[in-house]
Backbone:
């Protein structure tokens, strides 16, 4: 089993709609959680950290469920520019472990 | 430009040749990571430095791979006797702080193609 798993998608989303997807992790001792965004042929960039109480940044909401060992990302009012691959990342020891990414395609 | 820089951006080499990549992290960052990414996959951890000390290496990293970070500044990743399976994007990232709170800043990567 992979340490961090994501549905690869793609999630085809009409512009203006809401999309949500999860990321599961296997190490119950993981301390910190992040969502990164990666555009095609570009490097990953931090989108947001995920806190135990959940957090919101504009149209983006991230939540953590420690009991079930998953984190989620919800995007409201999707824009065409939200089309990207969303990578979840989990700390374990000294390193950040990434999932395989969820591809989101927002269409007009 | 004060971001993470990597050189070269692209490298094409023949199987069996040695290649070396360079990464210059953000100057105040004490942690430096190397990741490898293939198409459709997430970044895979290769190795990690805190200052000049290499603290962890992935089991993915065979003895053909070696990384250094002299003086805790820039880092190099060398692959000896390249194989076609080494073809990938090699990403460098830097951060400052503890693993629990740090946020990684990635360079644009070096795309390696082994023919």
Residues:
């Amino acid at each position: 089993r992979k340490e961090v798993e994501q549905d690869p998608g793609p999630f085809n989303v009409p512009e203006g709609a809401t999309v949500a997807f999860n990321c599961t992790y296997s190490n119950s001792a993981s301390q910190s959680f992040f969502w990164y965004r990666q555009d095609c042929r570009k490097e990953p960039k931090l989108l947001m950290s995920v806190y135990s109480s959940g957090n919101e940044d504009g149209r983006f909401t991230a939540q953590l469920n420690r009991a079930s060992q998953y984190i989620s990302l919800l995007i409201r009012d999707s824009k065409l520019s939200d089309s990207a691959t969303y990578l979840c990342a989990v700390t374990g020891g000294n390193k950040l472990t990434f999932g395989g990414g969820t591809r989101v395609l927002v269409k007009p | 430009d004060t971001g993470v820089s990597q050189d070269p951006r692209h490298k094409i080499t023949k199987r069996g040749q040695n290649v070396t990549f360079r990464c210059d992290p953000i100057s105040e960052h004490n942690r430096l990571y190397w990741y490898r990414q293939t198409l459709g996959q997430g970044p895979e951890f290769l190795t990690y430095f805190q200052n000049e000390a290499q603290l962890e290496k992935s089991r993915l990293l065979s003895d053909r791979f070696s990384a250094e970070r002299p003086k805790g500044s820039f880092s190099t990743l060398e692959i000896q006797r390249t194989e076609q399976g080494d073809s990938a994007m090699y990403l460098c990232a830097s951060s400052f702080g503890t693993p629990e709170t740090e946020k990684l800043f990635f360079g644009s990567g070096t795309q390696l193609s082994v023919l």
